[in-house]
Write a structure and sequence with these properties.
Largest sheet: 5 strands, parallel
CATH class: Alpha Beta
CATH architecture: 3-Layer(aba) Sandwich
Distance between the termini: 43 Å
Number of strands: 7
Number of domains: 1
Order of helices and strands: HEHHHHHEEHHHEHHEHEE
Length: 302
């Protein structure tokens, strides 16, 4: 962790230029979570060459590269611990997925009302300050001033873009960015394109709304490590890409002389370990007759 620290078109136009704003003279915190960011990356001999912006932060700020994640070390429990200061046992997000054996295995812990304790988002709201959240897990319905929560369609009844538009904060936050040409409404929400889209939304909202607290989740590094392994060239390329996005934030802080009032944290939620085999224990349970899965991918009995 380092210190350096988006009705009528007329309504959308109002959202695009008004609403709650902070002030550049106020202190602010930017918390950037790079999914799957590992401490060993900072020990690479080519660290400064591959990741120049992270290198700048480590030399000008502070570095702790021996951080332990929570248990279980999964994205949603970890991100909830970051903003509550509590372990999963207390804040209630014990997995990426809620335990719903009678319903399906596809749903995720999208919603803030599953969190049992107060978070820093609640504190910011109580103190009438401005918050910004971009793709931060478990924040659908959270009292974020400006938010684009992490949620994805798990069936064909609604697109991911339409689903996000139902839950952005305030209403029409995403439409505002589209109307002003910040993002392309037809842009892909998969892979690197998703992170480019999220980054454009973050930079635009941060510049215009001057939030006291910014929560920003970068994603593709997690996917590349799951698919290709932690030491793969694909994973390293993904981290280099995220480094460039972090660099854009740093350039903005440079150009606007905001470092003295800004605390910038770059962190990760969990690490990775390469494996040769994957054992699905539920398959064993099903083979032994200890649980039965229906054609609709739900558990009939267990």
């Amino acid at each position: 962790m380092i210190r350096y620290s988006l009705i009528l078109s007329i309504s959308i136009a109002v959202f695009s230029c008004g609403g709650f704003k902070g002030s550049w003279s106020d202190p602010r915190v930017i918390l950037v979570s790079v999914d799957g960011l590992r401490g060993d990356l900072f020990n690479r001999s080519d660290f400064s060459e591959r990741f120049p912006n992270l290198h700048r932060l480590t030399t000008s700020g502070s570095l702790c590269n021996n951080v332990s994640s929570v248990f279980p070390s999964l994205t949603y429990p970890s991100h909830t611990s970051m903003i509550t200061g509590e372990l999963p046992l207390k804040h209630g997000i014990l997995n990426n997925h809620p335990f719903q054996p009678e319903i399906n295995f596809s749903d995720w812990n999208w919603y803030q009302d599953s969190v049992r304790v107060e978070s820093i988002i609640d504190k910011i709201k109580q103190n009438e300050m401005v918050s910004l959240g971009i793709s931060w897990p478990v924040t659908v319905g959270a009292p974020i001033t400006w938010g684009f929560p992490e949620i994805k369609s798990i069936n064909d009844t609604i697109s991911t873009a339409s689903l996000v538009m139902k839950h952005d904060m305030p209403d029409h936050f995403l439409e505002s960015a589209q109307l002003r040409g910040i993002i392309n409404p037809q842009a892909s929400t998969e892979g690197y394109s998703r992170d480019v889209l999220l980054h454009k939304i973050f930079m635009d909202a941060f510049r215009r709304k001057r939030p006291h607290l910014s929560l920003y989740h970068m994603i593709q590094t997690d996917y590349e490590q799951h698919d290709y392994g932690k030491h793969s060239s694909e994973a390293l390329e993904a981290f280099a890409f995220m480094d460039s996005l972090i660099g854009n934030i740093m350039i903005f802080l440079d150009e606007n002389n905001l470092w003295s009032s800004t605390t910038l944290f770059i962190t990760g939620d969990h690490g990775f370990r390469d494996v040769d085999k994957h054992l699905n224990v539920n398959r064993l349970f099903a083979d032994q007759g200890w649980l039965k899965i229906t054609d609709n991918n739900t558990i009939e009995n267990w």
